[in-house]
Amino acid sequence: MPDQSIPQARTPEAPAAEPVPGAQGISRRALLGTAGATGLALGAAGGAVGYAAAPARATALSSVGADRVMFHGKHQPGITEGLQARGHLVAFDLAAGAGRKEAAALLRRWSATAQRLMAGEAAPHDDTDVARDAGPSSLTLTFGFGHSFFGRTGLEKQRPGALDPLPDFSSDRLDKARSDGDLWVQIGANDALVAFHALRAIQKDAGSAARVRWQMNGFNRSPGATAHPMTARNLMGQIDGTRNPKPADADFDQRIFVPASGEPAWMANGSYAVVRRIRMLLDDWEQLSLSAQEQVIGRRKADGAPLSGGDETTPMDLDKADARGEYVVPANAHARITRPDRNGGAAMLRRPFSFHDGIDADGTPDAGLLFICWQADPLRGFVPVQRKLDRGDALSKFIRHESSGLFAVPGGAAKGEYVGQRLLEG
Protein backbone atom coordinates (compact mmCIF):
# COMPACT_ATOMS: atom_id res chain seq x y z
CA MET A 1 0.00 0.00 0.00
CA PRO A 2 2.67 2.54 0.81
CA ASP A 3 4.66 1.57 -2.28
CA GLN A 4 2.52 0.34 -5.18
CA SER A 5 -0.86 -1.27 -4.63
CA ILE A 6 -2.44 1.51 -2.65
CA PRO A 7 -1.32 4.65 -4.46
CA GLN A 8 -0.15 8.06 -3.56
CA ALA A 9 0.99 10.79 -5.85
CA ARG A 10 2.72 14.05 -5.65
CA THR A 11 4.43 16.24 -8.08
CA PRO A 12 7.58 18.09 -7.14
CA GLU A 13 6.80 20.58 -9.86
CA ALA A 14 3.38 22.02 -10.58
CA PRO A 15 3.80 23.83 -13.86
CA ALA A 16 0.07 24.00 -14.49
CA ALA A 17 -0.78 25.80 -11.25
CA GLU A 18 -1.16 29.53 -11.51
CA PRO A 19 -2.57 32.24 -9.26
CA VAL A 20 -5.92 33.56 -10.35
CA PRO A 21 -5.58 36.57 -12.64
CA GLY A 22 -6.96 39.68 -11.03
CA ALA A 23 -7.28 37.99 -7.66
CA GLN A 24 -6.97 41.35 -5.93
CA GLY A 25 -10.51 42.31 -6.88
CA ILE A 26 -13.67 41.07 -5.26
CA SER A 27 -15.88 39.09 -7.64
CA ARG A 28 -18.18 36.08 -7.69
CA ARG A 29 -15.22 33.97 -6.67
CA ALA A 30 -13.59 36.61 -4.44
CA LEU A 31 -10.65 35.00 -2.74
CA LEU A 32 -10.50 34.62 1.02
CA GLY A 33 -7.09 35.59 2.29
CA THR A 34 -4.03 36.30 0.20
CA ALA A 35 -3.46 35.88 -3.51
CA GLY A 36 -0.76 36.75 -6.00
CA ALA A 37 2.64 35.82 -4.62
CA THR A 38 1.19 33.72 -1.80
CA GLY A 39 -0.67 31.66 -4.37
CA LEU A 40 2.68 30.75 -5.90
CA ALA A 41 3.86 29.46 -2.53
CA LEU A 42 1.25 26.72 -2.65
CA GLY A 43 2.29 25.81 -6.16
CA ALA A 44 5.72 24.98 -4.80
CA ALA A 45 4.71 23.38 -1.54
CA GLY A 46 1.60 21.63 -2.80
CA GLY A 47 3.41 20.35 -5.85
CA ALA A 48 5.94 18.56 -3.67
CA VAL A 49 3.33 16.79 -1.61
CA GLY A 50 3.79 13.08 -2.11
CA TYR A 51 7.48 13.00 -2.74
CA ALA A 52 10.05 13.29 0.00
CA ALA A 53 11.23 16.86 0.09
CA ALA A 54 13.58 19.04 2.09
CA PRO A 55 11.85 20.91 4.94
CA ALA A 56 10.16 24.06 3.73
CA ARG A 57 7.80 26.65 5.09
CA ALA A 58 4.25 25.44 5.49
CA THR A 59 1.73 26.90 3.10
CA ALA A 60 -0.71 29.24 4.80
CA LEU A 61 -4.23 27.87 4.39
CA SER A 62 -5.45 31.36 3.46
CA SER A 63 -3.56 31.05 0.16
CA VAL A 64 -5.09 27.71 -0.89
CA GLY A 65 -7.96 29.25 -2.85
CA ALA A 66 -5.64 31.17 -5.18
CA ASP A 67 -4.13 28.13 -6.89
CA ARG A 68 -5.38 27.44 -10.39
CA VAL A 69 -4.77 24.46 -12.69
CA MET A 70 -5.16 25.03 -16.43
CA PHE A 71 -7.85 23.06 -18.26
CA HIS A 72 -6.21 23.03 -21.70
CA GLY A 73 -2.92 21.23 -22.17
CA LYS A 74 -1.07 18.19 -23.48
CA HIS A 75 -2.54 15.97 -20.78
CA GLN A 76 -5.80 16.24 -18.89
CA PRO A 77 -5.57 17.87 -15.46
CA GLY A 78 -5.83 15.74 -12.33
CA ILE A 79 -3.07 13.28 -13.23
CA THR A 80 0.30 14.83 -12.39
CA GLU A 81 -0.86 17.57 -10.03
CA GLY A 82 -0.30 17.17 -6.29
CA LEU A 83 -2.81 15.38 -4.10
CA GLN A 84 -5.95 17.40 -3.37
CA ALA A 85 -7.75 17.67 -0.06
CA ARG A 86 -11.16 16.65 -1.41
CA GLY A 87 -12.24 14.41 -4.25
CA HIS A 88 -15.33 12.97 -5.92
CA LEU A 89 -15.40 10.07 -8.35
CA VAL A 90 -18.52 9.53 -10.42
CA ALA A 91 -19.40 7.11 -13.21
CA PHE A 92 -22.27 7.59 -15.66
CA ASP A 93 -24.09 5.30 -18.06
CA LEU A 94 -25.55 6.77 -21.23
CA ALA A 95 -29.34 6.88 -21.19
CA ALA A 96 -31.35 4.48 -23.32
CA GLY A 97 -31.35 5.75 -26.88
CA ALA A 98 -28.39 8.07 -26.36
CA GLY A 99 -25.49 7.47 -28.73
CA ARG A 100 -22.47 9.14 -30.28
CA LYS A 101 -24.23 12.44 -31.00
CA GLU A 102 -25.54 12.79 -27.46
CA ALA A 103 -22.18 11.75 -26.01
CA ALA A 104 -20.37 14.39 -28.06
CA ALA A 105 -22.79 17.09 -26.89
CA LEU A 106 -22.33 15.96 -23.28
CA LEU A 107 -18.51 16.04 -23.44
CA ARG A 108 -18.76 19.48 -25.03
CA ARG A 109 -20.90 20.69 -22.10
CA TRP A 110 -18.67 19.06 -19.52
CA SER A 111 -15.52 20.56 -21.03
CA ALA A 112 -17.02 24.06 -21.08
CA THR A 113 -18.08 23.69 -17.45
CA ALA A 114 -14.69 22.33 -16.41
CA GLN A 115 -12.84 25.17 -18.10
CA ARG A 116 -14.91 27.83 -16.33
CA LEU A 117 -14.94 26.22 -12.89
CA MET A 118 -11.19 25.54 -12.94
CA ALA A 119 -10.68 29.24 -13.69
CA GLY A 120 -12.72 30.19 -10.63
CA GLU A 121 -15.71 31.32 -12.67
CA ALA A 122 -19.39 30.43 -12.39
CA ALA A 123 -20.83 27.46 -14.23
CA PRO A 124 -22.03 28.34 -17.76
CA HIS A 125 -25.68 28.14 -16.69
CA ASP A 126 -27.76 27.70 -13.55
CA ASP A 127 -24.82 28.12 -11.19
CA THR A 128 -25.72 27.07 -7.65
CA ASP A 129 -23.47 29.65 -5.90
CA VAL A 130 -22.05 26.91 -3.65
CA ALA A 131 -18.48 28.10 -4.36
CA ARG A 132 -19.34 31.78 -4.77
CA ASP A 133 -16.80 33.06 -2.23
CA ALA A 134 -13.91 30.75 -3.12
CA GLY A 135 -11.11 30.76 -5.64
CA PRO A 136 -10.32 27.78 -7.89
CA SER A 137 -8.59 25.94 -5.02
CA SER A 138 -6.59 23.74 -7.46
CA LEU A 139 -9.82 22.32 -8.89
CA THR A 140 -9.34 19.66 -11.57
CA LEU A 141 -11.85 17.69 -13.63
CA THR A 142 -10.73 14.61 -15.56
CA PHE A 143 -12.86 12.60 -18.01
CA GLY A 144 -12.58 9.01 -19.18
CA PHE A 145 -14.37 6.33 -21.21
CA GLY A 146 -15.22 2.82 -20.03
CA HIS A 147 -15.25 -0.38 -22.09
CA SER A 148 -19.04 -0.28 -22.54
CA PHE A 149 -19.01 3.28 -23.92
CA PHE A 150 -17.77 2.17 -27.33
CA GLY A 151 -20.53 -0.35 -27.94
CA ARG A 152 -23.20 2.17 -26.93
CA THR A 153 -21.87 4.77 -29.35
CA GLY A 154 -21.04 2.52 -32.31
CA LEU A 155 -17.32 3.15 -31.86
CA GLU A 156 -16.20 -0.44 -31.23
CA LYS A 157 -13.42 -0.15 -33.81
CA GLN A 158 -11.94 2.73 -31.83
CA ARG A 159 -11.90 0.84 -28.52
CA PRO A 160 -8.28 0.40 -27.32
CA GLY A 161 -7.01 -3.11 -26.68
CA ALA A 162 -5.62 -1.81 -23.36
CA LEU A 163 -9.23 -1.25 -22.25
CA ASP A 164 -10.03 -4.97 -22.23
CA PRO A 165 -11.65 -5.93 -18.89
CA LEU A 166 -9.27 -6.53 -16.02
CA PRO A 167 -8.76 -10.19 -15.07
CA ASP A 168 -10.42 -11.63 -12.00
CA PHE A 169 -8.31 -11.61 -8.86
CA SER A 170 -8.88 -14.14 -6.08
CA SER A 171 -9.03 -11.42 -3.43
CA ASP A 172 -11.76 -9.43 -5.22
CA ARG A 173 -15.14 -8.98 -3.56
CA LEU A 174 -16.54 -6.66 -6.20
CA ASP A 175 -19.93 -4.97 -6.17
CA LYS A 176 -20.87 -4.78 -9.86
CA ALA A 177 -23.28 -1.92 -9.21
CA ARG A 178 -20.35 0.20 -7.99
CA SER A 179 -17.95 -0.85 -10.75
CA ASP A 180 -17.23 0.15 -14.36
CA GLY A 181 -19.48 2.59 -16.28
CA ASP A 182 -19.68 4.21 -19.72
CA LEU A 183 -18.14 7.49 -18.58
CA TRP A 184 -15.99 8.41 -15.59
CA VAL A 185 -15.28 11.80 -14.03
CA GLN A 186 -12.64 12.53 -11.40
CA ILE A 187 -13.02 15.78 -9.46
CA GLY A 188 -10.44 17.12 -7.03
CA ALA A 189 -9.93 20.40 -5.19
CA ASN A 190 -8.37 21.77 -2.04
CA ASP A 191 -11.71 23.07 -0.80
CA ALA A 192 -14.67 20.80 -0.12
CA LEU A 193 -17.29 23.29 -1.32
CA VAL A 194 -15.42 23.91 -4.57
CA ALA A 195 -15.25 20.15 -5.19
CA PHE A 196 -18.95 19.64 -4.43
CA HIS A 197 -19.88 22.59 -6.62
CA ALA A 198 -18.10 20.92 -9.54
CA LEU A 199 -19.76 17.58 -8.83
CA ARG A 200 -23.20 19.18 -8.83
CA ALA A 201 -22.49 21.09 -12.06
CA ILE A 202 -21.32 17.92 -13.84
CA GLN A 203 -24.39 16.01 -12.69
CA LYS A 204 -26.72 18.76 -13.90
CA ASP A 205 -24.90 18.95 -17.24
CA ALA A 206 -25.57 15.25 -17.82
CA GLY A 207 -29.27 16.09 -18.20
CA SER A 208 -31.19 13.37 -20.01
CA ALA A 209 -28.10 12.07 -21.83
CA ALA A 210 -26.64 10.04 -18.96
CA ARG A 211 -27.48 8.86 -15.48
CA VAL A 212 -25.22 8.35 -12.48
CA ARG A 213 -24.12 4.72 -12.10
CA TRP A 214 -22.09 5.20 -8.91
CA GLN A 215 -20.43 8.02 -6.97
CA MET A 216 -17.73 8.03 -4.27
CA ASN A 217 -16.24 10.72 -2.05
CA GLY A 218 -12.67 10.97 -0.76
CA PHE A 219 -10.23 13.18 1.09
CA ASN A 220 -6.55 13.79 1.76
CA ARG A 221 -4.56 15.92 4.13
CA SER A 222 -5.08 19.66 3.57
CA PRO A 223 -2.21 21.70 2.14
CA GLY A 224 -0.39 23.50 4.92
CA ALA A 225 -1.37 20.96 7.61
CA THR A 226 2.25 19.85 8.12
CA ALA A 227 5.34 21.90 8.89
CA HIS A 228 6.88 20.99 5.53
CA PRO A 229 5.84 19.03 2.43
CA MET A 230 5.90 15.30 3.15
CA THR A 231 4.51 12.01 1.98
CA ALA A 232 0.95 11.65 3.25
CA ARG A 233 -0.40 8.84 5.40
CA ASN A 234 -3.33 6.54 4.70
CA LEU A 235 -6.01 5.50 7.18
CA MET A 236 -3.78 2.70 8.50
CA GLY A 237 -1.38 5.41 9.63
CA GLN A 238 1.25 4.36 7.10
CA ILE A 239 3.27 6.76 4.98
CA ASP A 240 1.88 5.92 1.56
CA GLY A 241 3.46 6.66 -1.80
CA THR A 242 7.20 6.72 -1.18
CA ARG A 243 8.19 5.06 -4.45
CA ASN A 244 5.70 6.81 -6.69
CA PRO A 245 7.11 7.65 -10.15
CA LYS A 246 8.18 11.28 -10.46
CA PRO A 247 7.74 13.53 -13.52
CA ALA A 248 11.47 14.18 -13.36
CA ASP A 249 12.18 10.49 -14.05
CA ALA A 250 13.57 9.93 -17.53
CA ASP A 251 10.97 7.26 -18.31
CA PHE A 252 8.00 8.92 -16.57
CA ASP A 253 6.05 9.81 -19.74
CA GLN A 254 6.80 6.42 -21.26
CA ARG A 255 5.32 4.63 -18.27
CA ILE A 256 2.35 6.90 -17.61
CA PHE A 257 1.17 8.33 -20.94
CA VAL A 258 0.28 6.90 -24.35
CA PRO A 259 2.85 8.20 -26.84
CA ALA A 260 1.83 10.73 -29.50
CA SER A 261 2.39 8.00 -32.10
CA GLY A 262 0.43 5.42 -30.11
CA GLU A 263 -2.74 3.56 -31.03
CA PRO A 264 -5.51 4.38 -31.27
CA ALA A 265 -4.58 7.87 -32.44
CA TRP A 266 -7.28 9.57 -30.33
CA MET A 267 -5.52 8.32 -27.15
CA ALA A 268 -2.29 10.22 -27.91
CA ASN A 269 -0.93 11.78 -24.69
CA GLY A 270 -3.70 10.08 -22.73
CA SER A 271 -3.49 7.53 -19.93
CA TYR A 272 -5.42 4.63 -18.44
CA ALA A 273 -6.93 4.91 -14.97
CA VAL A 274 -7.59 1.88 -12.78
CA VAL A 275 -10.04 2.77 -10.01
CA ARG A 276 -10.54 0.45 -7.03
CA ARG A 277 -12.48 0.98 -3.82
CA ILE A 278 -10.28 -0.76 -1.26
CA ARG A 279 -11.80 -1.18 2.16
CA MET A 280 -9.34 -1.31 5.02
CA LEU A 281 -10.22 -3.74 7.81
CA LEU A 282 -9.09 -1.25 10.41
CA ASP A 283 -10.30 -3.15 13.49
CA ASP A 284 -8.13 -6.13 12.54
CA TRP A 285 -5.18 -3.94 11.54
CA GLU A 286 -5.23 -1.92 14.74
CA GLN A 287 -5.02 -5.09 16.84
CA LEU A 288 -1.53 -5.73 15.47
CA SER A 289 1.46 -4.49 17.41
CA LEU A 290 3.55 -1.72 15.87
CA SER A 291 6.27 -4.24 15.04
CA ALA A 292 3.77 -6.59 13.35
CA GLN A 293 2.37 -3.72 11.25
CA GLU A 294 5.87 -2.80 10.13
CA GLN A 295 6.58 -6.42 9.17
CA VAL A 296 3.43 -6.49 7.02
CA ILE A 297 4.45 -3.34 5.18
CA GLY A 298 8.23 -3.67 5.23
CA ARG A 299 8.73 -0.06 6.38
CA ARG A 300 8.87 1.78 9.68
CA LYS A 301 5.57 3.39 10.55
CA ALA A 302 7.12 6.51 12.08
CA ASP A 303 9.02 7.74 9.06
CA GLY A 304 8.45 5.31 6.17
CA ALA A 305 12.06 4.14 6.14
CA PRO A 306 12.67 0.56 4.93
CA LEU A 307 13.23 -2.02 7.68
CA SER A 308 16.65 -2.59 6.16
CA GLY A 309 17.69 0.88 7.41
CA GLY A 310 18.11 4.48 6.33
CA ASP A 311 15.39 7.06 5.79
CA GLU A 312 12.24 7.12 3.66
CA THR A 313 14.09 7.51 0.37
CA THR A 314 16.86 4.99 1.09
CA PRO A 315 16.75 2.08 -1.40
CA MET A 316 15.43 -1.06 0.25
CA ASP A 317 18.04 -3.79 0.80
CA LEU A 318 16.03 -6.91 0.05
CA ASP A 319 18.96 -9.24 0.77
CA LYS A 320 19.73 -7.96 4.27
CA ALA A 321 19.23 -10.64 6.94
CA ASP A 322 19.09 -10.60 10.73
CA ALA A 323 21.15 -12.68 13.15
CA ARG A 324 18.88 -15.67 12.58
CA GLY A 325 19.34 -15.51 8.83
CA GLU A 326 15.80 -14.19 8.23
CA TYR A 327 15.14 -11.39 5.77
CA VAL A 328 14.88 -8.05 7.59
CA VAL A 329 12.19 -7.12 5.04
CA PRO A 330 9.93 -10.21 5.10
CA ALA A 331 9.43 -12.18 1.89
CA ASN A 332 5.70 -11.36 1.89
CA ALA A 333 6.04 -7.70 2.93
CA HIS A 334 3.94 -5.39 0.82
CA ALA A 335 6.84 -3.07 -0.03
CA ARG A 336 8.96 -5.97 -1.25
CA ILE A 337 6.28 -7.51 -3.46
CA THR A 338 5.30 -4.26 -5.14
CA ARG A 339 8.78 -3.09 -6.17
CA PRO A 340 8.97 -2.45 -9.93
CA ASP A 341 12.22 -4.38 -10.18
CA ARG A 342 10.35 -7.40 -8.83
CA ASN A 343 7.54 -6.96 -11.37
CA GLY A 344 9.32 -6.63 -14.69
CA GLY A 345 9.62 -2.88 -14.24
CA ALA A 346 5.84 -2.43 -13.91
CA ALA A 347 5.08 1.06 -12.63
CA MET A 348 2.03 3.25 -12.15
CA LEU A 349 1.38 6.72 -10.83
CA ARG A 350 -0.80 6.38 -7.77
CA ARG A 351 -3.03 9.33 -6.92
CA PRO A 352 -5.60 8.20 -4.34
CA PHE A 353 -8.13 9.58 -1.91
CA SER A 354 -9.01 8.10 1.47
CA PHE A 355 -12.69 7.50 2.19
CA HIS A 356 -14.96 7.04 5.19
CA ASP A 357 -18.59 6.23 4.44
CA GLY A 358 -19.92 5.74 7.94
CA ILE A 359 -19.92 3.03 10.59
CA ASP A 360 -21.69 -0.31 10.19
CA ALA A 361 -24.24 -1.56 12.72
CA ASP A 362 -21.56 -3.66 14.40
CA GLY A 363 -19.29 -0.65 14.81
CA THR A 364 -17.01 -1.48 11.89
CA PRO A 365 -15.86 1.61 9.98
CA ASP A 366 -16.57 1.59 6.24
CA ALA A 367 -13.28 3.24 5.41
CA GLY A 368 -10.26 2.78 3.22
CA LEU A 369 -8.75 3.99 -0.02
CA LEU A 370 -10.13 5.12 -3.35
CA PHE A 371 -7.18 3.76 -5.28
CA ILE A 372 -6.54 5.53 -8.58
CA CYS A 373 -3.48 4.63 -10.62
CA TRP A 374 -2.35 5.93 -13.99
CA GLN A 375 -0.32 4.09 -16.61
CA ALA A 376 0.31 3.92 -20.35
CA ASP A 377 -0.88 0.30 -20.43
CA PRO A 378 -2.68 -1.41 -17.53
CA LEU A 379 -1.59 -4.84 -18.78
CA ARG A 380 1.98 -3.76 -18.08
CA GLY A 381 1.24 -1.54 -15.08
CA PHE A 382 -1.53 -2.52 -12.71
CA VAL A 383 -2.23 -6.12 -13.74
CA PRO A 384 1.18 -7.77 -13.12
CA VAL A 385 1.56 -6.07 -9.73
CA GLN A 386 -1.95 -6.99 -8.61
CA ARG A 387 -1.46 -10.60 -9.72
CA LYS A 388 1.65 -10.84 -7.58
CA LEU A 389 -0.11 -9.24 -4.61
CA ASP A 390 -2.92 -11.73 -5.10
CA ARG A 391 -0.50 -14.59 -4.57
CA GLY A 392 0.92 -13.72 -1.18
CA ASP A 393 0.90 -10.11 0.02
CA ALA A 394 0.88 -9.94 3.83
CA LEU A 395 -1.36 -6.89 3.59
CA SER A 396 -4.13 -8.72 1.72
CA LYS A 397 -5.79 -10.07 4.88
CA PHE A 398 -6.32 -6.51 6.09
CA ILE A 399 -7.91 -5.04 2.94
CA ARG A 400 -10.82 -5.91 0.63
CA HIS A 401 -11.25 -4.78 -2.99
CA GLU A 402 -14.96 -3.91 -3.25
CA SER A 403 -15.33 -2.18 -6.62
CA SER A 404 -13.28 -1.75 -9.77
CA GLY A 405 -13.16 0.18 -13.01
CA LEU A 406 -10.81 0.77 -15.93
CA PHE A 407 -11.10 3.90 -18.04
CA ALA A 408 -9.39 5.30 -21.13
CA VAL A 409 -8.56 8.94 -20.41
CA PRO A 410 -7.67 10.80 -23.63
CA GLY A 411 -5.07 13.52 -23.83
CA GLY A 412 -5.86 17.08 -22.91
CA ALA A 413 -8.07 19.29 -25.03
CA ALA A 414 -6.42 22.02 -27.09
CA LYS A 415 -7.96 25.48 -27.00
CA GLY A 416 -11.21 25.40 -28.93
CA GLU A 417 -11.60 21.64 -28.43
CA TYR A 418 -13.51 19.53 -25.93
CA VAL A 419 -12.23 16.38 -24.23
CA GLY A 420 -12.69 13.33 -26.45
CA GLN A 421 -13.37 15.34 -29.59
CA ARG A 422 -10.84 13.38 -31.65
CA LEU A 423 -12.69 10.17 -30.79
CA LEU A 424 -16.24 11.42 -31.14
CA GLU A 425 -15.72 13.48 -34.28
CA GLY A 426 -12.83 11.53 -35.86
Structural summary, described in words:
- Residues 1-23 are annotated as: Disordered.
- Its EC number is 1.11.1.-.
- One of its GO terms (cellular component) is cytosol.
- The model is unreliable at 4-56 (pLDDT under 50).
- By secondary structure, the protein is α+β, with helices and mostly antiparallel strands.
- The chain is built from 10 helices and 11 strands.
- Strands 7, 8, 9, 10 and 11 form a 5-stranded antiparallel beta sheet that branches.
- It has one domain.
- A hairpin with a 5-residue loop joins strand 9 (353-359) and strand 10 (365-375).
In short:
The protein is an alpha+beta fold and 426 residues long. The chain contains ten helices and eleven strands.
**Shape, please?**
globular
Number of strands: 11
Would you list the SSEs in sequence order as H and E?
EHEEHEHEHEHEHHHEEEHEH
End-to-end C-alpha gap: 40 Å
Structural class given helices, strands, pairing? alpha+beta
Oligomer: single chain
Low confidence ranges: 4-56
**pLDDT average, as an integer?**
88
Question: What summary fits the major beta sheet?
Answer: 5 strands, antiparallel
Helix content, binned percent:
10-25%
Radius of gyration: 21 Å
Integer count of domains: 1
Beta-strand residue fraction: 15-25%
Q: Which helices and strands occur, and which strands form pairs?
A:
Layout: E1 17-19, H1 37-48, E2 67-69, E3 86-94, H2 100-118, E4 140-145, H3 147-152, E5 183-189, H4 192-206, E6 210-219, H5 252-256, E7 271-280, H6 282-285, H7 290-297, H8 334-337, E8 349-350, E9 353-359, E10 365-375, H9 382-390, E11 399-409, H10 421-424
Antiparallel strand pairs: 1-2, 3-5, 3-6, 4-5, 7-10, 7-11, 8-10, 9-10
Helix pairs in contact: 2-4
